[in-house]
Write a structure and sequence with these properties.
The chain is mainly alpha-helical. It has one domain. It is built from eight helices and no strands. Helix 6 packs antiparallel against helix 8. The longest helix is centred in the C-terminal third of the chain and has 28 residues. It starts with a helix and ends in a 13-residue tail after the last helix. The relative contact order is 0.21.
Length: 182
């Protein structure tokens, strides 16, 4: 289920629809919310890093803490550019749920925000604090922070970049396929 939720919510984030509203409407919290967050981060950080050579720092920030929806026009032109972040979300979703037990115990809307304004990460943190206050969690551990950083930032950047390199090598992603009109 971590794969399915991560991939579907990540795709919804990049489409011109509201993944945050979908997560809020479905009440995606707990492990499902963690998987949703992983998928959103895979899209945002993934596209930001994968397109760095075309879009430089402006594109990195616009997509990484803004929205991967900026790539929608490019996805319409070449849908293959979407494969690397989707593959990444299929990897990070189950890692978030099964290995790191990353839960979104903050507001459900935060599950669908990814790294946009760091709302997803703030939602996870406020969930930790609420769990400690409720007595269901003893403390925020180093493993909690490692999981959050790996799932939300490092793995999406590294994996999508590596998949992107492969797709560039085989010609599925060409020069300027990821260029934004900023």
């Amino acid at each position: 289920m971590g794969i399915i939720i991560s991939v579907i919510v990540g795709i919804a984030l990049t489409l011109p629809i509201s993944s945050a509203a979908i997560c809020a409407a479905l009440g995606l919290t707990g492990l499902a919310g963690g998987a949703a967050l992983a998928g959103c981060c895979a899209q945002m950080v993934g596209f930001a890093v994968m397109s760095f050579r075309e879009n430089k720092w402006g594109g990195l920030f616009a997509q990484g803490i803004g929205t991967s929806m900026l790539q929608m026009g490019n996805i319409v032109k070449n849908p293959k550019i979407w494969i690397p972040p989707i593959l990444t979300s299929a990897i990070t979703g189950p890692l978030a749920t099964c290995l790191f037990r990353l839960e979104m115990n903050g507001a459900a809307v935060s599950s669908g925000m990814g790294t946009c304004g760091l709302v997803g990460q703030i939602g996870v943190y406020t969930g930790w604090v609420a769990d400690i206050a409720a007595g269901t969690k003893d403390a925020v551990t180093a493993m909690d922070w490692i999981g959050l950083i790996l799932i939300c930032f490092l793995l999406p950047g590294i994996l999508t970049w590596l998949f992107g390199l492969f797709f560039r090598k085989i010609g599925w992603i060409r020069e300027h396929d990821l260029t934004l009109d900023l």
